[in-house]
Specification:
CATH topology of the largest domain: Rossmann fold
CATH architecture of the largest domain: 3-Layer(aba) Sandwich
Largest sheet: 6 strands, parallel
Structural class: alpha/beta
Oligomer: single chain
Strand content: 5-15%
Number of strands: 12
Helix content: 40-55%
Radius of gyration: 22 Å
CATH class of the largest domain: Alpha Beta
Strand order of the largest sheet: 2-1-3-4-5-6
Number of domains: 2
Amino acid sequence: MKDNSVEQNKHERSEQKKIIIFSCYGGGGHMSAAKAIENYLSNYQVKIIDAIGGLFAQIDPIYYLTFKYYTGQDFYNYLLRHNRKRITNLFFYFGALMCSLRKKSMFRILEQSIIEEKTDLIISVIPLVNNVLAEISRKHSIPYFLVPTDLDIQSFIKEVQFAHQKNSMLCLGYDYPEIKKCIDEKFIPASHIKVTGFPIRNAFFEKKDCAQIKKDLSIDFSKPVVMLVMGATGSTATLSYLQELIKITVPFHLIICVGRSTSLYKPIEKTTFPDHITYSIFNGNRDISDAMAISDLCITKPGSVTFSEVLYMNIPVIIDNTTPALIWECMNLDMVKNYGLGTIITSYQQIKKIVTTYLIDKELRIMTKNNIVAIAKKDFGKEFKKLVDGVFE
């Protein structure tokens, strides 16, 4: 029988520990991962800090060029919303250069924040700043966990050194050989690397009542369900896909995920759907994991967080690559091809044919689903919480 007083003391000690998660609002994935981690560590004091658009605004040239109206993060999101991926890639290189040139300022700003918050554990889910955070962690002997939110972790681990540093850990989403090729063990030894699973919310691990969800959404049980989710900033791509999907002659139900893009409602409602295609609009009123649970096929962008949510739900995936992928998303495309997880679309003209093939070929969907099931996927919440609890024991 457990000693209740011991358990209570342990809980009280954990509540006193302060954990800072450095994240940002660039895209939707970093903040989604940060909030998932915050939820898993609910017995600790956890604070999420927007480093890129918040702390670094004071050294952001775009912030001052626009008279403190827009940050570089705002411009990045504008590019994503309008599917300007080539410019986004160039802008990323500009951001990386600025981080390199302003490393001392970044160190000062981050160190001040960490000290002011009386931080007991540093967690980062963002790229480009982790060499600085590793130095601060080493200087102040504060444990540091780096949780990349992309499969391609190069921008996360650039110049990061964990060798001879206690309680520092690189937490990988998958045991995928291409990921580990990015790591130089002279700087990040194997003892500082742990496959924890990808940082997605607990809702994706819950058992779902698929029949009830379909009933709630008035979905015909005889129809296959296709999910269209272009992420928090993918408004332009959503409408482009929609115009091609309504040309399909096979009956199906379409779930359109609009995320933060409330501007999508009017153009969707003005769209004329043929009688054999029914649809639902998914926003923040219902968890997106419910939509994934009932989907037979998912069309999405190659962003790592949504991509991983789809993989964890074992759904055959069609990845949008109608414009060149962001540099850090190319590995996701390779994973789809190498493991047979679905199909990559490079032109809107391919949509009707490819989606129709998946709708009418049930064996193809089953084979693809089996390939996804075979991918080892750890429960991030359980694995990561064990690591954190181990630091404070």
